[in-house]
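Blinded run. Sample ID left blank on purpose so nobody reads anything into the name before looking at the predicted structure. Input follows.
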Amino acid sequence: MASLTDFRNKLTGGGARANQFSIRINSPFIADTEALSFLCRSGSLPAMTIGEVPVFYRGRQVYVAGDRTYADWTVTVYNDGGWVARSNLENWNNALQDFGNSTVGAQDPSQYYGTIYVRQEDRSGNILRIAELSDAWPTNVAEIALAYDTVDVVEEFDVTFRFNYMQVYGSGSSLGSGAGGGGGGNITAEDD
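Blinded prediction complete.
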């Protein structure tokens, strides 16, 4: 029979905390990645989804693993008083398709792809896991709600990204081989 002590002992470090994270977005269009990192109010560790392929045999259906897919990824950003973070993200989005001067944007994806690092940390700031979202670009820089009756609130907006693939690094992870490698506790990614 399980006891409370057994449960507590399995909850290493008191459990991972949802508010102990940082997000770093590296892109040629982001002038101050550190400032933007502080302004990212919320995000998520992306889901890992593998499709399924139904295979039929004599009236029976068996499923086998299909291809990995990645959903859009969204982050919520505080708007700073100088609009620096918002402007950087708008410029990145504008590089894909100009606002009104032409219908041509960046032709070569290497000109607009960025890399996003989502870091889960412990209470001491040590990195537990890193999700590296590669070949990322913003598909939507959302609206900022304005209202006369809104007081004591800092403006914020969502940014939705599409990325081509993801790698996960961290203690006990065998998923990735870079940024400190899988299995090791020492993570030294480019996002430090």
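Unblinding after everyone has recorded impressions. The longest strand covers residues 127-141.
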